[in-house]
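== Sequence and structure of one protein ==
=== Format: two labelled lines per protein ===
==== Data for this protein ====
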Amino acid sequence: MIYVPVMSLDVYHNFGLEYYLMTEHHFNEPVFMLWSTTPTVMLGKYQDAAAELNVEAVKRNHVKVARRYSGGGTIYTDQGGCQFTLIYPDDRTEIDFSSGLELIQKALNQIGIKATTDSRNDLVVGGRKVSGSAQYVTSGYKLHHGSLLFESNLDLMNQLLNVDPVKLAAKRIASVHQRTVNLNEQEPSWTAADFRENLRQAVYDLTSFQEYHLTADEQARVAEIGQQRFADPKFIYGRQGQGAFQVKRYFQGGGLVKIAYSIYHDQLADVHLTGDFFSNLDAVKFEHALDGTDYDRRRVSNVIRDQLAEDPILGVDADQLVNMLFDHV
């Protein structure tokens, strides 16, 4: 395993570093990174920023907004926690959190924090969430990244994030705060820096990783990617739709799926797919494939099956999406 030290607290730079290591500097063995950010909210690939964020609270508290290339939900990060990234050679395209979560779970256990896996992508301590994960793939490589709460500002997190009532009801909780906990409850004598160093050392003990330091030219390229790809407001805020109909459902093991659409002359139009689900699906391609399709269950089903054949949605099948478009009318 290779360990790449990350000093930057800028989320755009750090997402740029992930992308660079996924697409331009390939290692033949897994790469591991630990990093932190200034106060930031990170949107999932398929989410609508206007629906997920309390925009006024974000502005008032000078919080950065970023969007991941991975699916899943919106998270809050700050210097009181840390992010972990695992990049490894893998030709499989399906979403699978087991290997990445296993390493982090073992490392946490080694430093005295008894974490277990829960549902599709979380680590929990005492039944409360301390870590969420997400993934995306490129040709021959898979990236698994996640967050770890240590002494993060959970009150601010609660102000910044709008969580859909459908999702809260499915999880039988009243707020995000109710389900999350900081790890400093387990180790109150540690600082956030202590936690990161102890975790780094535990991963070293488990893997005997070797450090790799980027050259100045590589650092410049990473900064360029960060600004061009991840700091672009169109990329961050672009997932918005205004269909005449809006349907949403929470699927256990799949997440929240929202579909906005209109019907003109008995055909689908203005289709817009959002949510906190996991997939490698190209949402724009999916939407364009449905636009102009006759509003007929069989024809819509055929289009959706074709789109999901190559890039399925984890925990959600074609029939469930078809039902969303027809059963509420």
